[in-house]
Amino acid sequence: MTAHPPAIDTRELRKEYRGRAVVDGLTLTVPRGEVFGFLGPNGAGKSTTVKMLLGLVQPSGGEVRVLGGSPHDPAVRAQLGFLPEQFRFQTWMTASEFLDFHGRLAGLSAAERRTRVPAVLDEVGLGGRGHETLGGYSKGMLQRAGLAGAILARPQLVFLDEPTSALDPIGRVEVREIIERLRAQGAAVFLNSHLLSEVEQVCDRVAFVKRGRVLTQGSMRELMGGVLPVDLRVDTLSAELLADLGRLGELRRTDTNTPGRADVELWLTRDDQIPAVADAVHASGARLYALTPRRPDLETMFLDLIEDTPEAARAGRGEASRA
Ligand SMILES: Nc1ncnc2c1ncn2[C@@H]1O[C@H](COP(=O)(O)OP(=O)(O)OP(=O)(O)O)[C@@H](O)[C@H]1O
Hints:
By secondary structure, the protein is α/β, with parallel strands linked by helices.
């Protein structure tokens, strides 16, 4: 393995089932320390891609490298974490036994397992519950236990398939924090989720796939075409301030209907223009009540790109007969 190869590198990756390409020329690079969102409608080929990246499904063509090596290499596999959407567990095991078992499979020593198992249980919010059997766990607790298994051996690349589908809002925030910690530790996270608001908050880059092909990929900003919408509220909007704002960005909307209040939607191109907006407001003598960069709306982008009518989605499910 070379010094810092990307976490994921695929070239023209392809998988056919019965002569039909379900992954069709997929080229992706995910560097270390990045959270990558992999989005697409049902049947787009996301799970098949993940299985090829994990070495569980043999590609029909193309190249795949994970952490600089082959997903079949045990040394590479030892650095991968995986939380499948429907993760199966042994109901008779306690959570601690389950994690200890996984730790053994991942090659952790007994001493490491003794400290690491309670530490990950704490990290996923199951501190003090490790002695209970998984058969008595709720759906959300099982998902947390699965996540603990995925991060147990300090993986360099973690695949999370719908990691929060069974979780309450607090659990979702906690999972987001875990993903952010993984990134801070330099690991890459490959996230598959239908919860776009969640993806928006945590992913550095996303790819949209449909019928096994990448429609587009990039950071939120790139996907938005380099536009940063900002909502501004001031008490008075002078002609001079309006002209200054117009020089900084594109004025998309101004609302001065309410006395003592003016709302402006301004489209900037870069974060570092935001302080200049505040400066212009102060220079005009107006008082600033809000200056809020708006998140690019992934759901709108997704629907625009995928253009899946309910009919198309039903047809997609109809063809989803698995061997
Ligand atoms: N083992 C298999 N044999 C035949 N066809 C398969 C097999 N596995 C997947 N497929 C087909 O490949 C296509 C992509 O499936 P895949 O599970 O990768 O999609 P997905 O994007 O993960 O969907 P979802 O969001 O619904 O989980 C589907 O049409 C599916 O029927």
